[in-house]
Amino acid sequence: MSTTVARPASPAAVVALQYANPSRMVSIPLAILVAAVVVTSGIVVALSAHGGDGALESNGAVVWSIVGFVVAIGVQAVAVTFPLALALGATRRTFTAGVLLTAVLESALLTAAALALLGLERVTGGWFVGARVLGDTTLGGGDALALVAVMSLLSLSALTAGAVFGAAWIRFGARGPLVLGLALSAAAVVALLVLAPAFGEAGRVFEPWWLAVAAGVVVAASTVGTAALLRGATVR
């Protein structure tokens, strides 16, 4: 008599579970990008009508509108899905890997959408009113490669950072994200105080690849933190 041992769910299965909610993972993020275009274009029209500068070279509309929701996606990717994933056979390790893979795919989706919108923005001359939304200087000033780099690194960092806060909630309840947030804020303040004297020199020698390194550190630290927190978490 042979015994069949069920195989743990793979990271790909965890990704499929995440995208079982297409509204959260696809529809709403894309709608936010489109809304940023509409709102910014409306602001340009309003400024132009009152004699203001309609160009809005650097407004950060996409960055500020999408980052908060992307962090929320990361939180929900862990807090909402973890119990169900384990019930369906995922191990904590495969779940963490699946969350990271989800972050990579979601980042690719948002980056591809932003790139497509940049193309439309160029074709329409700034959405017919001279608006620079995807061509904003915070997103590379219209450079497609820069946009890809900024959007992919920004969204990947935000998603994985949200995941570690979701893991803190799973592990410690409501006080977990609170304590984690306070600890990170305190660490950021101390770092700013220590590094403040070097800001002037750093600004003179700054290289864009520093941001890529910083994003890599955030992704790696968040993934390790998520795995560590989930290792001792109780499924509720």
From TrEMBL:
Superkingdom of the source species: Bacteria
UniProt organism field: Amnibacterium endophyticum
Keyword Chaperone: no
Keywords carried by this UniProt record: Membrane, Transmembrane, Transmembrane helix
UniProt key word Membrane: yes
Annotated protein name in UniProt: ABC transporter permease
Segments crossing the lipid bilayer: 28-49, 61-86, 98-120, 144-170, 177-197, 209-230
